[in-house]
Amino acid sequence: MPREQLILEHKSRLADSLCGDSAEPRAIVLMDATVIPIEKSSNYSAGRKSFSQQKMCRAIKMMVLCAADGYILQVIGPTFANQKNNDEGIFEAMTTEGNELYDPGFQPYFERNDCVVWDRGFRKVVTRAERMGFDVKMPALKPRNVRQLSVEEANRTRAITMIRWPVEGIFGRIKQVFKRCDGRLKNTQIPSFGNIFRICCALTNAYFPPIRRENDNELYIAQQVIQRTERSNIFFQYLQDNNMINRRVIWRPLNAAALETMPENGPLNIDIDEVLTDFPQLNMDDLRDITLGTYQLKLSPSYTAEHVEEDGKYMIFYNIQDRGILQVRLQSRHSNAKEYKLFIRYDPSEDHVESIKGWYYDCPSGARNVGYCAHIASVLWYLGLARHQGEIPVPARGVFHSVLDSANGPEQNSDSDINESDDDEIRADADTESESDST
């Protein structure tokens, strides 16, 4: 495909606006690789080269270059999946003359100041790409011993994520439609898999609509991203200045506010709906306007279902100094040992989007104000919308009913005491035997 056709026919207004710091039209290319698991092999050398430390399995990789709308331009591979064949290693090989992955047409195809959008896996070849004339867009890197990205870095990272998601969507579409590209690959299929994958990509280009479809809302989203990127997170600064993030004494459970005014013989089970009556009602358009996307809202039911109590209500804390600030403590999605704190500021005198004045979350990218993460989305979705619509939907409610959990049961302290006493007896016997042996 000629470069001019790429610029004119396979563009995205959102990507053009967020990468549009150039006066002239330029090509925007997304790059990423996907991993295809393979079987064990009796060829031990190939087995070591194909072992992916990231996926912890033997695999091969396919690198894809696509346009901003998801149109596939080039496929590279298959390659091994070890550390030497990571994303940055593949890019360095394809731009190094004499390497078996060298592509002589890659660099001449592009012109100076064309934009390439990467993930963090290419971080070590950013300087190389910039020397070649590319304008590199990549999410910010969190320095070591730093817990959270700055507001500017988090905003920029969110903007880049909004540009580069089509390349991830392409992998999902190919693996969903073409089952040969999904699951574990037989080793006898490896020699022909490169051609099979390219055919699947060609069929995707020919018979499927673009993964990113142009709509009138994209220009509005781009304008909102640019405006919010230039603003600092005022609410985050307010929390820091008043030391509200780490102080526990200024926070009270929301139910405690009702208990203070409850009659002496009043009910103990207090519904949050009866306490948090001034929180504004929101609709899906309001939530989409703040998130600047739909992905976070799709995850909201899952997060909400995990973090509600047995009575179906969130445990929420209010600030005794400012009742318009709420705190919610959320369990990490990936680790039982991690717990994050979320803060929301609202104004009950206003309606819809204007009522949400600020948000902050102490996860690595939680300081941004270009949209918010799925954790904040789940709380706003619950408080502003779902709790007014009846029962909270629980995703995949009946799927795991037949799966047993050995940890679900009463604690057996007596057994543990017996085991401890048995251990003591075993140690005593061992000491006696060792003493007799020494004599």
Automatic annotation (TrEMBL):
<feature type="compositionally biased region" description="Acidic residues">
    <location>
        <begin position="417"/>
        <end position="439"/>
    </location>
</feature>
<feature type="domain" description="DDE Tnp4">
    <location>
        <begin position="31"/>
        <end position="205"/>
    </location>
</feature>
<feature type="region of interest" description="Disordered">
    <location>
        <begin position="405"/>
        <end position="439"/>
    </location>
</feature>
<dbReference type="InterPro" id="IPR027806">
    <property type="entry name" value="HARBI1_dom"/>
</dbReference>
<dbReference type="GO" id="GO:0046872">
    <property type="term" value="F:metal ion binding"/>
</dbReference>
<dbReference type="Pfam" id="PF13359">
    <property type="entry name" value="DDE_Tnp_4"/>
</dbReference>
<keyword id="KW-0479">Metal-binding</keyword>
<protein>
    <recommendedName>
        <fullName>DDE Tnp4 domain-containing protein</fullName>
    </recommendedName>
</protein>
